[in-house]
Amino acid sequence: MNTTLSLHGVRGGVGVTTMVAALGRALHAQGERVLLVECNPDHLLGLHLGLPADERRGWARAWLDGQDWRDAAFGTLPGLALLPYGLASEADVAAVEDRLRQSPRFWAERLPLLAAQFDWILFDLPQRLDAHVAAVNQHAGCALPLRLTTVDPGCHVLLQRRADDTRRVLCNRYDPALAVQRDLMQLWIDGGPRLVPQPLHEDASVSAALARKLPLGADADGSQAAADVASLAVWCLAERGRLRAREGRSP
Q1: Which residue in 100, 176, 245, 251 has a CA-CA distance of 20 to 30 Å to 1?
Q2: How far is CA 39 from the centre of its chain?
């Protein structure tokens, strides 16, 4: 039985795709079999795993073209695979969003086909495509739905406006040298949203990894951000154990 995890930005540009690639690589380094599923029509996740920028294939592209979505998967390493979105125009994305409204159990029906092949399935969710997000988090019953934020005043306001959202919040690009970030982080710890206990620190190696078309960690194992993501992977494994214990299943 695999565990599903989704990452959804509090707003755009907080680093969701980068962190999905990095976390997938970190879980794979722990001996886990991992599938990364891109639900973001920007179609950039493959760049972190060595796919060419002009690669057209993906599950959404296949769905629109009447092809088998499984044929769009790429194996990057033994036990680490990617299912990209595929190149899509704005009209194509609108068509996929409409199809997901009509068939909200799209992923719920397909995840059992992947259960024996992967220990983890990580979803890179888009910012403002509600049916794309609901198909994973609500209708497929994602086990670990996380929100990603940066530690800045704008995200603080958005988190306050969505105080009824119970998903855990993962902090990205945290720079404790900046007083405003220290203050906001302390405010969140004292009485803000439920935080994932491992923040991800600001680190220039993150953009350098993408420039080399490698996930963070594969490119710069000695960086602070890579160490943070490795710790996040360990937290995910522990959280899976806690979830299974509550469900009465073996870890």
Answers
A1: 100
A2: 9
Rounded Cα–Cα distance for residues 74 and 57 (Å)? 10
251 pLDDT above the threshold of 60: no
In the chain, where the domains are located: 3-247
Closest CA to 213 of 7, 1, 44, 41: 44
Which of 202, 166, 180 lies closest to 15, judged by CA?
202
168-172 and 34-38 as β-strands: parallel, antiparallel, unpaired? Answer: unpaired
Is the distance from CB of 232 to CB of 38 less than 8 angstroms?
Answer: no
Both structure tokens of 43: 């179609």
44-85: per-residue pLDDT in tens?
999 999 899 999 999 999 999 999 999 999 998 899 999 999
Per DSSP, the residues of 16-59 read HHHHHHHHHHHHHHTT--EEEEE--TT--GGGGGT--TT----H
* Percentage of the residues of the chain whose pLDDT score is greater than 90: 82
- Contact partners, residue 3, CB within 8 Å, separation at least 6: 119, 120, 121, 143, 144, 236, 240, 243
State the pairing for strand pair 74-77/80-83. Answer: antiparallel
Closest CA to 21 of 5, 36, 39: 36
> 3-247: which CATH architecture?
3-Layer(aba) Sandwich (3.40)
Question: In this model, does residue 162 exceed pLDDT 80?
Answer: yes
